[in-house]
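Appendix B. Chain record.
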Amino acid sequence: MPNMNKGDFIGANAYITGGSSGIGFAIAGEMMELGSNVLLVARDEKKLAQAAAKLEAKKNSNGQRLDWLSLDIGDWQRLKSLLPEKVKTFGPPDILVNCAGIAYTHYFEKIDYQRFTEVINTNLMGTWGVTRALVQYLKERRGYIVNVSSSLGFIGSFGYTAYAPSKFGIVGFSEALRPELKPFGVRVSVLCPADTDTPQLVEDRRNMLPEVQALNGAVGLMQPQEVAKALINGMIKERFMIIPGFMNKLAYLLKRIAPWLPNLIMDGIVKNVQRKGE
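Structure tokens predicted for this chain:
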């Protein structure tokens, strides 16, 4: 798809992991409205079926296709056989959006080995696995890969010693992958949203550390549709780093030009919360 524009989404096959809810679902909706054929990939069959039913209303042509695949992207053995099989029936991908992931917050010493590896395996290894299983098709079709990281992929934050490394890893993976695939006409972008109003965030907030709550409140909350629209605009402009939201962009800029400043702000917020809790 050379010279990316909105017309290139028409008839394109978009594979979206984590597409049953949250940001992934919003991205699927945007791409459906632009005329893409969408394959949703997630673990929960019930949620996938519900998401697909909602997305049916966004079809803008009779020939537009929508399908789903129940798959745990952290299961490499299943993934490497099921995805190529799905390609045979749905068609090869023109666009891959690696959006599936899990979050977990706790104090470092409260995170056990099993929980840490679960987060890394799903977020980082899952992104690697899906990309590895589909990259040959994307090369053949000069496609587009979007890996979804987070603002915690460029700023490590209190309470995220499992999640942040997985998201930093996605940024590094994407940076290394981009020049390898460029000669084949495949573009690579990494999406780094800040806190977004998703079912996962609602679940996380039930047991969120007070320090994390305070830090998240300082940044603000985005809506999934905002993030999805920012992604489409970033893809059209072929930006490598796609960073939705003014405050998020500001945080990224500060981290680059004055890396000490975000740390200073974070330390101040954490200290204030802990002082109140004494």
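Further analysis of this model is presented in Appendix C.
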